[in-house]
Amino acid sequence: YEKLSRIQGVEVASKFSNGMRYMAFNTRLFPGSDKAFRQAVGCIVDKEFVINNVLQGVAINMDGQMPAALTAWVAPVTGVLADCDGLSAEDRWNKSIGILQDAGWTAADWGSHPGGNERAVAPTGVKGPNGESAPDNMLLYAPGPGFDPIRSTFSLFIADYMQQLGFDVVARPTGFGVIVDLVFTAETCRDWHFYMLGWGLGTFPDHPALFFDSAQDTCTVEGYNTPGYNTEGGYQNPAFEQLISEFKLAKTVSEAQRISKEIGRAHAELQSHSDLVCRLLLEKKKKREKKIKI
After folding, report:
1. Cα separation of 58 and 150, whole Å?
2. Four-residue CA torsion sign, 215, 218, 223, 226
3. What is the reported pLDDT for 291?
4. Tens digit of pLDDT for each residue in 130-171?
5. Among residues 25, 30, 65, 78, which one has the least CA distance to residue 244?
6. Are the beta carbons of 140 and 122 closer than 8 angstroms?
7. Which range (58-67, 79-88, 109-118, 153-162) has the least confidence?
8. What pLDDT does 292 receive?
9. Mind spelling out the 3-state secondary structure of the chain?
10. Which residues, listed in sequence order, are joined to residue 282 by a DSSP beta bridge?
11. Residues 38-53: pLDDT tens digits?
């Protein structure tokens, strides 16, 4: 954007894209099955830092399922994302550790943060409320830099943020088709922990009903519910499933918008997906010279 705007005689306009980039947790597997883990990850990831300091502002932060272009559908930011908004790196880390501790997680050593933008000294021996340890070498799949540098970059930073919480997560940039075949196939629906993909939206944004509807379970019908929400072995939240059912039965657009915002508030609490960004679309055109009649 800055390079284009410096070209003499060129005007640059920007607008929101009607789509999203997201990271999914496999809630059929620990630790993605634990709400506090998902919330802690949502808190510590400083998306604004990555967007502005690394990606040079080429994307727009998303804190929910709806991109900013769909203003009538966007729910106010609530839950852990609101609590952690604007915090320093140290405060984000402390808040995330507190989320885990309050939910009954334990550690041999909870680590520390040196302050500023330095990396935290990660906790060791972290265990969930039931005494379960997270697996080693958990992979975060994302499209490679040649396909999408935005998701590839985010995967590196998010893996590092999770490492600072004491989880052995490794970013794995790979082919787009590799990810799709892995996460949307019944035979391999439990063979991954985290992935990043994107979604282009239409004029009627019904994607939450696809992403989280139990009838769309990837493990049984190879549908769009890859995280396994409200499916056998996945994270259970009947109230969320009820909202999905009500959304599908909505008779008017205004009713669908109201329910969509309720879904957004529930999503903010449950962190069923970690919504990342939508792309910033740039348009350039030559400036028109104004002729003044004398």
Report:
1. 8
2. positive
3. 39
4. 999 999 999 999 999 999 999 999 999 999 999 999 999 999
5. 65
6. no
7. 58-67
8. 38
9. CHHHHCCCCEEEEEEECCEEEEEEECCCCCCCCCHHHHHHHHHHCCHHHHHHHHCCCCEEECCCCCCCCCHHHCCCCCHHHHHHCCCCHHHHHHHHHHHHHHCCCECCECCECCCCCCCCECCECCECCCCCECCCCEEEEEECCCCCHHHHHHHHHHHHHHHHCCCCEEEEEECHHHHHHHHCCHHHCCCCCEEEEEEECCCCCCHHHHHCCHHHEHHHHCCCECCCCCCCCCCCCHHHHHHHHHHHCCCCHHHHHHHHHHHHHHHHHHCCEEEEEEEEEEEEEECCCCCCCC
10. 14
11. 999 999 999 999 999 9
pLDDT of 7 reads 63
Structure tokens at 181: 């075949």
Q: Which residue type is seen at 257?
A: Q
On the question of pLDDT at 54 being above 90, the answer is: yes
List all residues 6 or more positions away from 242 whose beta carbon is below 8 Å from its beta carbon: none
201-205's contacts with Cβ under 8 Å and 24+ in sequence apart are 201/18, 201/19, 201/20, 201/67, 201/70, 202/18, 204/253, 204/256, 205/65, 205/66, 205/70, 205/73, 205/260
Distance, in Å, from the CA atom of 112 to the CA atom of 90, rounded to the nearest integer, reads 9
Token reading at 108:
């041999």
Tokens for 132, please give them. 């379960």
Give the per-residue pLDDT at 282.
41
